Amino acid sequence: EHPSVALAAVVGVPDPVYQEVGLAWLMRKPGAAALPDQVIRDWCRERLANYKIPKRFEWPDELPMLPVGKVDKLQLKRNSQKGTTSA
Predict the structure, then answer these.
(1) Would you give the DSSP letter of residue 68?
(2) Which of 1, 35, 38, 54 has the fewest CB atoms within 10 Å, measured from its CB?
(3) 13 near 20, Cβ under 8 Å?
(4) Average pLDDT, consecutive stretches of 10 residues, N- to C-terminus, the chain (87 residues)
(5) What is d(CA 52, CA 67) in angstroms, rounded to the nearest whole number?
(6) What is the DSSP string of 2-19?
(7) Which CATH number among 3.30.300.30, 3.40.50.10860, 2.70.70.10, 3.30.70.1400 corresponds to the domain 5-82?
(8) Structure confidence at residue 82 (pLDDT)
């Protein structure tokens, strides 16, 4: 829903403190300015319960898609486990 975000997906990633936290993969709308993570975090805080707010954010140019038009969350999870920040 954020005016600067065209597409978003959240996957769980391992965390040494919480066991697993949310990693949000966000694709900017064409022409949208880059946003600091804190701006998105504050925006989420106004709309989501605290435990649902992602702890980390990645801003790839594109997200991997399945043939049916959905975001390929398995690929995002693999990328995050490898430490890859590009989708």
Answers:
(1) T
(2) 1
(3) yes
(4) 94 93 96 93 96 95 96 94 64
(5) 28
(6) -TTEEEEEEEEEEETTTE
(7) 3.30.300.30
(8) 77
Place of tokens 């403190």: 17
Residues in the chain: 87
Q: At which residue do the structure tokens 């949310």 appear?
A: 22
Question: To which H or E segment does residue 25 belong?
Answer: strand 19-28
% the chain with pLDDT above 70: 94
* pLDDT one-digit tens code per residue, 38-58: 999 999 999 999 999 999 999
- Decide if 57 contacts 24 (C-beta within 8 A): yes
Domains of the chain by residue range? 5-82
What are the tokens at 1?
Answer: 């829903």
Cα–Cα distance between 24 and 72 in angstroms, integer? 13
